[in-house]
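Crash report, auto-generated. Payload:
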Amino acid sequence: MKFAVTVTLKKDVLDPQGKVVGQTLKNMGIKNLNQVRQGKFFEIDMNEEDSAKAEAQVKEMCEKLLANQIIEDFKIKKAE
Amino acid sequence: MKFAVTVTLKKDVLDPQGKVVGQTLKNMGIKNLNQVRQGKFFEIDMNEEDSAKAEAQVKEMCEKLLANQIIEDFKIKKAE
Amino acid sequence: MKSSVIVFPGSNCDRDVAVALEKLQFKNSMIWHKETELPKSDLIVVPGGFSYGDYLRSGAIAAKSNILSEVISAGKKGSLILGICNGFQILIECGLLQGALLRNSGLKFISKDIFVKVQSNKNKFFNKYKTGEILKLNIAHNEGNYFTDKKHLEELENNELIPLKYSDQKGNINLKTNPNGSINNIAGIFNKNKNILGMMPHPERMADKVLSGEDGLGLFLSLMN
Amino acid sequence: MTVTKDQIESHGLKPDEYKKIKELLGRDANLLELGIFSAMWNEHCSYKSSKIHLKKLPTKNNIVIRGPGENAGVIDIGDDDAIVFKIESHNHPSFIEPYQGAATGVGGILRDVFTMGARPIALMNSIHFGLPQNEKTQNLLSGVVSGIGGYGNSVGIPTVGGETKFNSTYNENILVNAMAIGHANKNKIFYSEAKGINKPVVYVGSKTGRDGIHGATMASAEFDENSEEKKPTVQVGDPFAEKLLLEACLELMKDNSIISIQDMGAAGLTSSSVEMASKGKLGIELNLNKVPCRENNMTPYEMMLSESQERMLIILDDKKEEEARKIFDKWDLDFVVIGKTTNTNRLILNFDDKKIADIPIPALSDKAPLYERKWTKSKLSKNKVKIKDLKKIKIEDALIKILSSPNHSNKSWITDQYDQVVMCDTIQKSGGDSAIVRIHNKDKAIAISVDSSANYCKADPKSGGKQIVCENWRNLISVGAKPLAITNCLNFGNPEKPKIMGEFVECVDGIKEACEFLNFPVVSGNVSFYNETNSKSIFPTPVIGGIGVIDNLKKIVNIKTKKSGNLIMIVGKTLGHIDQSAFLQENFSIYGGPPPEINLVNEKNNGLIVLKLINENLALSVHDISSGGTLVSLAEMSISSGLGLKIYKPKKLTNSFEYFFGEDQGRYLIEFSKNNLKKIETFLKQNSVFFEVIAEVQNDIFEIEKTFSLKTKDLHDYNNQWYSKYNAIN
Ligand SMILES: Nc1ncnc2c1ncn2[C@@H]1O[C@H](COP(=O)(O)OP(=O)(O)O)[C@@H](O)[C@H]1O
Ligand SMILES: [Mg+2]
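Recovered output after restart:
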């Protein structure tokens, strides 16, 4: 069972990477770009039939390791 | 108009980050974990009404900057 | 001999390499990344540091700068180009060198003196060293884990395109002497024509006896040959 | 609209403090003004509890160019070269978010140094964690270390040394102190004092976001409707922006367009503008609509109190604006004139064409409250540990236990994450008694060391305060440097408690006494109070960062023993003071008793004589004796060279544990060639310095005669395992 997890910086937290990437894209000629925010992406593959259990485990992983909840939010999606 | 872009390492490319994250999670007691692969996530906000045009532009950003296509794949999704 | 050192926002070994070059009487110019023309030079150096903060992927953003198109065309015409650390990453990102530099296998920034073994001196950059010679150099990077596909790896191995491999002081090349997970302990590679070199270790940091050694000087001396 | 009682309280202001605010304003404050007062009057900016005590410290002598009061201290090292340096704490942010907390700590202290016109040439740090077995420690350790490295490496300033300690007192309150050292031309130092009227006030650097807005949670409730946006956020560092800001500022400083310059540190735009105006006895008027903002709909309150990083405020001279703007454009940084200097002596803020704050500058600075807080003398523990019970253990086992303990293990797991040599002037990296960094293009260098000893200070704050200055001085001497001046970071608990305040007062007294005696002035520093959790305070932890100068690069020594057959002597007298020693702590978990005594006369005499021996090329390697005592220091010399030692048993041995592990102060180990023995003996006797020859360098084997024998390589391994085991992934 596979999950797609995205970890993003909270709204008011500075995102130095996104800032520089956005600026570079603008310099490359994409004038109608508003903003870029950069985050992390995890593809998690579990040996688990019980999807509720698996999802709970992924949530635990996010809380304990993958995301730093002081500055980051996370989202979990079941992938095919 | 917002887009969510994920950039992931190609299958046959070694993923040192994913490997260490996976190992750490296993050590934390998640035994039924199969594999973790780590990638990047971008939230791209465009000042553009024409969604086909915007999507083409996002594709261009990925090809020219956000992904290194020698080792990485990307996926674009329109976000709400 | 004339040299040019390219400076990006966030470069931080530009001065260091200029000091080493000038010590050997290179006539050096610092070239800001927004320039659109390169002065005529016998050697172009893309120095180490954190161009654009190493954001996105190290080297990726610098590879898009004005001056890089000049560097690329110079490289294609056969000029000598040396990319050190972040410079190596930039040369890879702009396509002058093949492969990829991934996160270190230990996921930590590594900065320390290491040993490398010269694999071949039949080229412009290492002719002052002996093949098999062991050098003490310094590394300092987050992404120095060289990776490439099998076919290219074979090409590198079979054509003496890997001048340096990580080793220990005795020259053993194995997993234990590999600081960052690089495939085949690769510390630096050439392009096919051997006019473009990318390497993770910093030769300019070993160019002064008062500091920790002079093993890196040979590289700059070779270039003067 | 006046402020409520709740708002006053949530801004950390006491009722009588607010009363004083009303008096100074002649009216009630509005919420923005309250925020500004609270930022300027809090402990961090006003030093209200510490100021009267800090005044006692010696801050001047012939090499001090500028003492405390500026962004950093400035000293003269000859030939127009000045060294600019300071240490600062980032304890609380690092406990909450170790990576960003430590990273922004480094960023902040770097700005303090380059605001003054100095190019940073080195970084140091002092980091204190709870016990390794404490659940949080590992995560904090790895986050802090990678944060320090992540920032310094990226900006390209070498992190050349520091100290790392573990002690249960920091379980819930870690310490992260960072020190930056810069080099400047002594005739081109920049200060924060504003001069002249109607001069443009320029904002440069990154944009302002809602980072780290203190006490704003409740206070800003009325400003915006969307409650999601009110969370005070952790500051995230952007080392890339810092590097650009550094280069842009130094480029602008090449000519004379800057009248004054000040980084936006704690309390951001508020404290920087007030400080500049206050020092110049001027007023300042800002148009907040001009402040570059990162987020939409930011309020004046948020702009004034934001602690967004990588920003500076500059007062420019007339007609210099365009040239200056070009430089900041080149480096892709914001450059906006947001106001002007005035002769009103007031801080006036305008927003949307309305005056929204109007405060007399002195009310925020000179008239901020000062407290002479109650304090009580610390009770000193007199009982000596009875050594009889301890005889069951073997000397070599005790040695191994200490060498392999977290506090004494080799720190390369940490230092390998720091770029120690970028800038190509690092002569000695971490691992010795002091780091050594060359002055670029010159044949001279500075030595740097940071030190603390919380256990000593807890047992006796005054003697501990003295001790730590002396240890720092000793570490500088040990590499051949002439000690010049220090900076200090005083990490303490809650000053409102008389016992804690007492620890502070006595520590400062101790520091003062030692600094005065050694002619080792304090030129900058930082006080961090309220290091406590659940009313449990940390041990008093003053951290000293010292600078010494080396005028000739050939006269540098290190701790590596050089040659088999050479002898080693102890300079200074060994009495065997074992209380508070690493020996008792690591082997028996015994923490009682008084710390070793400090004899300033011997300290100074021994130090100056050792420096002479080094300068005469008579001392081939030198190591001071500190935590762990003589045997541990000898072992460290051996480990670092790989050569062994044959150690003699002293003739009048009362107790070998006391002799070998005692931590008597003012002592050094010195390696010398046998041929020079007579010469050195005569010299030391002439100068009334006590010494005894204790060991001979040999190959491979580290032994005490008739006691034990170990392979040096094994000692090395014992000393090198702990960190990698503790931090292993699998
Ligand atoms: N956090 C750190 N960062 C850099 N260097 C460190 C750190 N912690 C310890 N070190 C280095 O480890 C060595 C040993 O430290 P320490 O035992 O505190 O030395 P000393 O007793 O001489 O003050 C020193 O060279 C010091 O610079
Ligand atoms: Mg020492």
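Post-recovery validation: The helical segments of chain A are 16-27, 51-66.
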